[in-house]
Amino acid sequence: MQANVLVADDDPAQLAEMSDFLEHAGFSVIRAHDGHHAVELIARHRPRIMMLDVNMPGWDGVRVADAARNLDHRAVIILMTGDTDALKYAISTDCGAVMAFPKPVELPKLMSFLKSTFGEIEPEAAVNL
After folding, report:
1. Edge-to-edge strands of the sheet including 97-102?
2. I need a labelling partner for 13 at 20 to 30 A (CA). Which of 24, 32, 47, 56 fits?
3. What angle do CA 69, 76, 85 make, to 5 degrees?
4. Cα 124 to chain center, whole Å?
């Protein structure tokens, strides 16, 4: 079984780039195009990792992270945004996020963060942490 990663971003290019990178790294990726869709997918798939765009129409990434906590779902939450003010906002919230990346996300830095969080293990094994 592979570690599920939810990637939620309203920018189709960013969503595709992030998802393709994570799939190539061995993760099972669930894609959401906005915050409401992300919450539906969180309830259904219970991903181990959530990568949430802070600026999405409808529910933003911070609100989605709060909703995940209200669903009593524990996951590694990573926020991402291309807006400096939104990045400051994301960092200052108490939504359960463990990291906030500026967009475009530097993919080697993302992988380094994931490896430091889960250790030098295969993505499939991350499910059992």
Report:
1. 28-32, 4-8, 49-53, 76-81, 97-102
2. 47
3. 85
4. 17
Instruction: Please write the tens of the pLDDT for every residue from 3-33.
Output: 689 999 999 999 999 999 999 988 999 999 9
User: d(Cα 99, Cα 70) in Å, to the nearest integer?
Assistant: 20
User: Could you tell me the CA-to-CA distances from 113 to 24, 44, 76, 77 in Å, in that order?
Assistant: 16, 26, 11, 12
Q: Is residue 88 part of a domain?
A: yes
Q: Tell me the chain's radius of gyration from C-alpha atoms.
A: 13
3-state secondary structure of 117: helix
The answer to the question of residue 129 being in a domain is no
- For residue 19 the two structure tokens come to 């998802």
Q: Show the domain range for 67.
A: 4-124
CA dihedral 104, 119, 32, 40 (to 10 degrees): -150
Number of H helices, E strands in the chain: 5, 5
**92 or 56, higher pLDDT:** 56
Neighbouring CB atoms inside 10 A of 59's CB total 19
